From TrEMBL:
<dbReference type="InterPro" id="IPR000123">
    <property type="entry name" value="Reverse_transcriptase_msDNA"/>
</dbReference>
<keyword id="KW-0548">Nucleotidyltransferase</keyword>
<dbReference type="GO" id="GO:0046872">
    <property type="term" value="F:metal ion binding"/>
</dbReference>
<dbReference type="InterPro" id="IPR001387">
    <property type="entry name" value="Cro/C1-type_HTH"/>
</dbReference>
<dbReference type="GO" id="GO:0003964">
    <property type="term" value="F:RNA-directed DNA polymerase activity"/>
</dbReference>
<keyword id="KW-0460">Magnesium</keyword>
<comment type="similarity">
    <text>Belongs to the bacterial reverse transcriptase family.</text>
</comment>
<dbReference type="InterPro" id="IPR043502">
    <property type="entry name" value="DNA/RNA_pol_sf"/>
</dbReference>
<keyword id="KW-0479">Metal-binding</keyword>
<keyword id="KW-0695">RNA-directed DNA polymerase</keyword>
<protein>
    <submittedName>
        <fullName>RNA-directed DNA polymerase</fullName>
    </submittedName>
</protein>
<keyword id="KW-0808">Transferase</keyword>
<dbReference type="InterPro" id="IPR000477">
    <property type="entry name" value="RT_dom"/>
</dbReference>
<feature type="domain" description="Reverse transcriptase">
    <location>
        <begin position="1"/>
        <end position="234"/>
    </location>
</feature>
<keyword id="KW-0051">Antiviral defense</keyword>
<feature type="domain" description="HTH cro/C1-type">
    <location>
        <begin position="18"/>
        <end position="31"/>
    </location>
</feature>
<dbReference type="Pfam" id="PF00078">
    <property type="entry name" value="RVT_1"/>
</dbReference>
Amino acid sequence: MKEYSINQSPFYKCHNKKKLAKILGVSISELRNIGKKIYYREFINKKGRIVYEPNSYIKKIQSKINDLIGRIEKPYWLQGGIKKRSNITNSMLHKKSYYFLILDIKKFFENCQRYYVYLFFKNKMKMSSDCSNILADICTYNGKLVTGSPSSVLISFFSYEDMFINIFSLLDTNQVLSVYVDDITISSTLPIVDPHHLKHEINSVLKKYGHSLNLEKSKYYGKLEFKKITGVVVSPKNELKVPNDHRKKIVDGINKIDNIGERSKLSGRLSYSSQIEPNIFPTIKAINKKIHDD
């Protein structure tokens, strides 16, 4: 998908509700009453995290917003929520590095405030206050971004773009940055001078915007260590590897291959793993293929 500068976005300098309604694909009356149609279902996912899922009507509009926002130019180091970028491409950026500082932003979406979303549309998109307020209401719930919304990942970046650019400015020219939602990875072919100080500098930047690092999940890795970033392992030999827990699920899955549901899971795991290690598990792949062909 071809990207364009922010001033080419349909949202840019949108100053009236009639135009905004047309952009979103709704009637002007629907737009005026949009607040009455915002509903979310709250549940806990498999990882034990609270998810707020919007109703289908709002989700469709959020998806439209996400599609249009997704066409705006983004830095190469932003890897989350973008077509053709993933946790795997995120790890690929660091493949040639030896030293890693891996950081985690604490309760990221929960601390992404509606005010910053509003400011993005008002100041960066140069929209009118009423149109900016409408979009901020559509994109947030209870005054913050939520995990179940299809627009949250990209909106979180653009709403806090200045914060991430400030973090990027702290790095040396030989250091590589990537941001995957709430995961920040900094790597280098050379040892990172005083990673503890850099970590606290980054934390200071985050705090200016109402965020902070999860210090317990933040770690510095040396040249001889295996580094796990966004679900992919980078070896000391600069090779991408499938994590051991994922390997175990594949090995265990071959013993349950008679179960149709487990067979589907196995196929998915093999497909995912092959994107990281193309030659992984050739025997299991052959068995799985034969069963599906039969």
